[in-house]
Design brief:
This protein is an alpha/beta fold. It has 19 helices and seven strands.
């Protein structure tokens, strides 16, 4: 029997729950369907928010041929085979077929480059689904030819609607006597992930006698016994959060435990390595600048080595970062500056700091009065580097752990 989440997958466009900014009456994707037009798009959002469903129903609604690939088990060979089929079919169809690639962020540069020509020529309309920021994971040439659409987690009302629909419409659940007395635990566990919510509901029902009265206590009791880490991202965000917070909190053993949970579940080691780079800059920062160098070296080494040996590299860097002194001063400082600009706007660059490559600019006093630090003792000279109105403002507040000159 199919899992409940699969049984409840919408069959029609108007059955989709959530993402109304995309699929609602005035949603951009609804407008595309009405216009019988679809550009290549990236669907970006956490697991269980409808990326695959939307791709399938777009193809159905537009009456397009659909090819599907998963970046986990497909390579350049599989991509080229699909593109060859699509090019042949283009002679008999007025509209290009849709190629849906799930987890497109797992494709490397050469795999993504293989798609570029087909997208440019209109051989296929590409729909990529990703849980990672496309700006970091999709090559610029391909990304520039696609529209990025952000999907949001389901809200409380949407999750309630999904639960009620499953209990009342699913052919198996509606045979049982199910009462939703409390839903907070189910919703908290799912975190806006529809698939996670339905899997949890099904698990609770399967492990309870009929009639089923669902309470928060029952949900906690059942899920503690049945839910394991899912390499397809069912607990992707919860566990990486626990891992990062353990390293930030300097708890080596907890960090190693959550690292082991992810590795045992088949998590992408490069995903973990990327998070270690972010953590090294955000939480360790100037307290130990070498942490960022080591985390970056870790990413390169994991990329070159792969599993199972990559576990050793990840373990070494996890322990190093957990032991390191912590400082978030760099993180807070740039946010302070950005927030200030957001509230107050941008001031013009002082004349003495401006570049003067032309005669006219020199006549306008660009660069006039600038003091070249290397002409002064210790290569330092006092002068104003901020706009006049901002002289004296401070964005950087050093931490006691920062290994810098705090003058």
């Amino acid at each position: 029997m199919q899992p409940l989440a699969e049984r409840m997958r919408p069959k029609k466009w108007d059955e989709i729950i959530g993402q109304q900014h995309l699929v609602g009456q005035n949603g951009i994707l609804t407008k595309f369907i009405q216009q019988n037009f679809l550009p290549s798009i990236i669907l970006w959002g956490q697991p269980g928010v409808g990326k695959t469903t939307i791709a399938l129903l777009l193809a159905q609604s537009l009456n397009r041929t659909l090819y599907s690939l998963s970046a986990i088990n497909s390579g350049v060979k599989e991509v080229r085979e699909v593109l060859e089929k699509a090019e042949k079919n283009l002679f008999t169809q007025q509209k290009s077929p849709i190629l849906f690639i799930d987890e497109i962020h797992r494709f490397n540069k050469s795999q993504q480059d293989a798609l570029l020509g087909a997208v440019e020529k209109g051989v296929i309309t590409l729909i990529g689904a990703t849980t990672e920021n496309p700006s970091f994971e999709i090559v610029p040439a391909l990304l520039s030819r696609m529209q990025v659409l952000t999907l949001t987690p389901l809200n409380k009302d949407e999750m309630q609607l999904l639960l009620d629909k499953a209990i009342n419409d699913d052919k198996y659940l509606k045979q049982k006597k199910i009462k939703l007395k409390e839903t907070e635990a189910l919703m908290s566990f799912s975190g806006g992930d529809a698939r996670k919510l339905l899997n949890a509901l099904e698990s609770v029902v399967q492990h309870s006698d009929d009639p089923v009265e669902i309470t928060n206590e029952l949900v906690h009791k059942v899920l503690q016994k049945t839910i394991l880490y899912d390499k397809n991202a069912e607990q992707h965000y919860d566990v990486i959060s626990a891992f990062i917070k353990s390293v930030r909190g300097s708890d080596i053993d907890a960090a190693l435990y959550w690292l082991a949970v992810m590795l045992k579940g088949g998590e992408d080691p490069l995903f973990i390595a990327r998070r270690l780079i972010i953590l090294a800059a955000e939480d360790i920062g100037l307290a130990n600048p070498n942490a960022l160098l080591l985390a970056n070296a870790c990413f390169d080494a994991v990329h070159k080595i792969g599993m199972p040996e990559a576990r050793i590299i990840l373990s070494e860097v996890t322990i190093y970062l957990a032991q390191s002194p912590k400082s978030n001063s760099a993180y807070l400082s740039i946010d302070n500056a950005l927030e200030f600009i957001e509230k107050n706007g941008i001031q013009p660059v002082p004349l003495h700091l401006r570049n003067a490559p032309t005669k006219l600019m020199k006549e306008l006093n660009y660069g006039l009065g600038y003091k070249y630090p290397h002409d002064y003792p210790n290569h330092i000279v006092e002068q104003n580097y901020l706009p006049e109105k901002l002289i004296g403002i401070k964005f950087f507040d050093p931490s006691v752990n920062d290994k810098i000159n705090k003058k």
